[in-house]
Amino acid sequence: MSFRAPEILRSVILDDIRGAQKMLSGVARVTAMEGSRHLSQLVGAPVHLKCENLQRTGSFKLRGAYVRIAGLRPEERAAGVVAASAGNHAQGVALASSLLGVHSTVFMPVGAPLPKVAATREYGADVRLHGQVVDETLAAAREYADETGAVLIHPFDHPDIVAGQGTVGLEILEQCPEVRTIVVGIGGGGLAAGIAVAVKALRPDVKVIGVQAEGAAAYPPSLAAGRPVSIREPSTMADGIKVGRPGDVPFKIIGDLVDDVRTVSEDALSSALLLCLERAKMVVEPAGASSVAALMSDPKFFEGPVVALLTGGNVDPLLMQRILRHGMAAAGRYLSLRLRLTDRPGALAGLLSALSVADANVLDVSHVRTDPRLGLTEAEVELHLETKGPEHCEEVAATLRAAGYTVMG
């Protein structure tokens, strides 16, 4: 997605964030901080997870949306607000508006996941489906704002949004005063910017590390250029950080205060989501798991104690299913093999028996008996197996070879 600069460009300071924290008292939850034994062993230092996936609406977005809408003048509130989003920001704006008694209209892409559309409606917004991508949806929201006078609530490019998200940083310092490194996913940059302002004002020794998906990493080239630049066609499963251009407000802050911005692969994101589910018992969306992906990708880079933000948990069940399969494959939990065997009665049963001994779970079998590549007495079998990890994959292949099978890959 790409967004135009806001009307107001002003800096955000610690007092803004402290004011936002008071405003959010009784509205936003002080989310839990959970330790992770697995990640701590990997990093070689304590790792804690800041669970914004357990925030109201399922992400940190409520914080900034509420502060922004609460700061509107009476005549602006009377005109209502409008937003464009595929999920988290939509729900944050919808709930914040309902709590403040402000009418909200939220434009969402036609293909937005049904659970997110339903949740946004349930929080009180008038949902309008428009466009196939968020750029088209945002254009419709801007047109609606121009026609009706409704105030456009930007997802990240406004000082009030940054201040609201920065309250997460204050909570981290209160919950984990010994922290040395904070790792946070970056899309447009509102959350990372707010955390950096809060943390660097109170603890300048703490490092703030941003994380972007490799296919949607607009910050590295922007920081190198010294100004926000757009990347063409950002692509990642992590739609929460799929932003094609940094926000003007957060960009300046991140350039001044964030210590590093790192990138992670799609395999790392899916593996991180799987780890959060299996080890931390946390349902996290791909963008929400980006900080964990960074820790898993280069664990020795991070000085502990580390706080990694789980920024959101709004994941469509169908997408979760696909991502988990991808994550299991990336973690070496799936094994695909082709084997040649003698074409005789009982040969396939013998192969499956050998796999049972190897404790591999068969997901799919393709048995080919007629093919020009095969000899008169040969058959070829393609297997898709569920295993316990890379070492088990090697054990399964070795067991089959030892049983006399020709493993072709």
DSSP helix fraction: 40-55%
Structural class: alpha/beta
Separate helix tally: 16
Largest sheet: number of strands, sense, barrel closure: 6 strands, mixed
Strand order of the largest sheet: 1-2-10-7-8-9
Task: Give the CA-CA distance, first to last residue.
Answer: 41 Å
Shape: elongated
Per DSSP, what share of the residues sits in E-state strands of 2 or more residues?
Answer: 15-25%
Write the SSE topology.
Blueprint: H1 14-24, E1 33-35, H2 37-43, E2 47-51, H3 61-70, H4 74-79, E3 81-84, H5 88-100, E4 104-108, H6 114-122, E5 126-129, H7 134-148, E6 151-152, H8 159-175, E7 181-185, H9 190-202, E8 207-213, H10 219-225, H11 248-257, E9 260-264, H12 266-278, H13 290-297, E10 306-310, H14 317-330, E11 334-342, H15 347-357, E12 361-368, E13 378-386, H16 390-402, E14 406-407
Parallel strand pairs: 2-10, 3-4, 3-6, 4-5, 7-8, 7-10, 8-9
Antiparallel strand pairs: 1-2, 11-13, 11-14, 12-13
Give a quick precis of the structure.
This protein is α/β, with parallel strands linked by helices. The protein has helices spanning 14-24, 37-43, 61-70, 74-79, 88-100, 114-122, 134-148, 159-175, 190-202, 219-225, 248-257, 266-278, 290-297, 317-330, 347-357, 390-402, and strands at residues 33-35, 47-51, 81-84, 104-108, 126-129, 151-152, 181-185, 207-213, 260-264, 306-310, 334-342, 361-368, 378-386, 406-407.
